[in-house]
Write a structure and sequence with these properties.
By secondary structure, this protein is of the alpha/beta class. It has two domains: about 5-275, Rossmann fold; about 280-405, no CATH class. Helix content is about 50%, strand content about 15%. Strands 1-2-3-4-5-6-7-8 form an eight-stranded mixed beta sheet, sandwiched between helices. A two-stranded antiparallel sheet has the order 9-10. α1 (about 5-10) packs parallel to α6 (about 75-80), α7 (about 130-140) runs antiparallel to α14 (about 290-305) and α14 packs across α17. The relative contact order is 0.11. This is DUF2974 domain-containing protein.
């Protein structure tokens, strides 16, 4: 059963009877994707979760959310199910913060959930549909600390100082990375109160972060949860304990945690498949061909080209795809020769890394990776055509209506 099925099945059992578990963690990590505008107006403090859900419904249609193109937009469906039973009826939510800054390349949001036993779950939002959010993701490969990760530390220090009780930190995608970073580099007195850190298919870190005393001290408390074809969750380095679980989706679409399977109080275990290993090897070897200066330069150039279209989100970008691609090609023609060469070299090295990874897997007996890539591509194309799967917007910026026009 997927997350919505889990809530329908488990929602009649209070947390006092069946304690908080890893499935509940995934659900809580998705709450930070919800736009709790009313909480911003109220400031710090905890408020009734059901009341905030009702405020949300005053401005949004749950029927429209069911057909939303981006999986992060469907997070309120989990909240809706949470309100249908006693399991989370005494749960409160608060300390909601949203900070977006295009100039400093920061896309950050977080909130706290207060469990009935006094434990605080700090949920960090992952990447949204904004171009700035994705740009920050790419900067993680060449910067030890991004503006968002720095904000995560500041946020946790603030709420830990204000709140009593123990803490569980978690997040999905980039939010998982922020959760780990905040827990590792927070004030020492707060770190002692951290029970667990959940990284739900989020990327890792550069080696200097991994080898730092702060991260090494926290390492035993971290658990990474990743689907069998995990791609995002295998980027960069992360030596933490990993629980590979089963998703009902294919390829990159498994990043949508609402497709993860649960049974009773845990997620269904699996193993990383050849597609995940292939992608990790390809991207890892590709990044090794570039120094930090080249990585940052490439990121700046690529996103400057995208931003030349005046699009703020990938949904806007795909809304006028042909026109925007024409703009990008024109802007590429204006680039200095060294920047053009840098882009072409990077693409050439990516193709070469991909070939080498495929050959290596085939030689080691991995005969199914090609069929997995084809299957993943077919699933992605199918979802683009129907627009029914939320993760497509995360990958391609397609809404349902746009997908039906393909």
């Amino acid at each position: 059963m997927e997350l919505l099925d889990y809530l329908a099945w488990r929602n009649d059992v209070p947390l006092s009877v069946s304690p908080f578990n890893e499935v509940d963690n995934v659900i809580f990590s998705y709450l930070s994707y919800i736009e709790f505008g009313k909480l911003l107006e109220k400031g710090d403090g905890f408020f009734d979760l059901k009341e905030q859900y009702e405020h949300f419904c005053e401005k949004h249609s749950m029927e429209e959310i069911k057909t939303a193109g981006q999986f992060t937009e469907r997070a309120p469906l989990l909240l809706q199910k949470m309100m249908e039973g006693p399991r989370f009826q005494d749960t409160k939510v608060g300390y909601y913060v949203k900070d977006f800054d295009k100039d400093t390349v920061k896309q950050f949001a977080a909130l706290c959930v207060l469990l009935p036993d006094g434990t605080n779950y700090v949920s960090f939002r992952g990447t949204d549909e904004t171009i700035t959010g994705w740009r920050e993701d790419f900067l993680m490969s060449c910067q030890s600390e991004t503006a968002g990760s720095k904000e995560a530390v500041s946020y946790f220090n603030k709420v830990a100082k204000a709140l009593e009780g123990k803490f569980i930190l978690g997040g999905h995608s980039k939010g998982g990375n922020f959760a780990m970073y905040a827990a590792a580099f927070c004030e020492p007195e707060h770190k002692e109160r951290i029970m667990q850190v959940y990284n739900n298919d989020g990327p890792g870190f550069r080696e200097e972060v991994i080898q730092s005393p702060e991260f090494q001290e926290l390492l035993p408390k971290i658990i990474t949860i990743a689907p069998q074809s995990s791609i995002i969750g295998q980027l960069l380095s992360n030596p933490a304990k990993q629980h590979v679980i089963h998703s009902t989706a294919k390829g990159i679409l498994q990043h949508d945690a609402m497709t993860w399977e649960a049974e009773k109080h845990c997620l269904v275990s699996s193993e990383l498949d050849e597609l995940s290993e292939y992608t990790k090897t390809t991207l890892g070897s590709w990044l090794e061909t570039m120094d930090d200066e080249t990585r940052e330069s490439l990121c700046t150039t690529a996103f400057s080209l995208i931003e030349s279209t005046k699009s703020e989100t990938f949904i806007e970008f795909s809304g006028n795809l042909m026109k925007n691609m024409e703009t990008i090609w024109k802007e590429m023609g204006k680039l200095p020769e060294d920047k053009k060469k840098e882009i072409m070299n990077a693409l050439s090295k990516l193709i070469e890394s991909s070939k080498q990874a495929a050959v290596s897997q085939i030689k080691s007996g991995g005969q199914t990776v090609i069929s997995q890539i084809q299957s993943s591509g077919q699933a992605l194309l199918s979802q683009m055509q129907t627009g029914s799967h939320a993760a497509i917007s995360q990958v391609m910026g397609k809404t349902k209506e746009e997908g039906e026009k393909v």
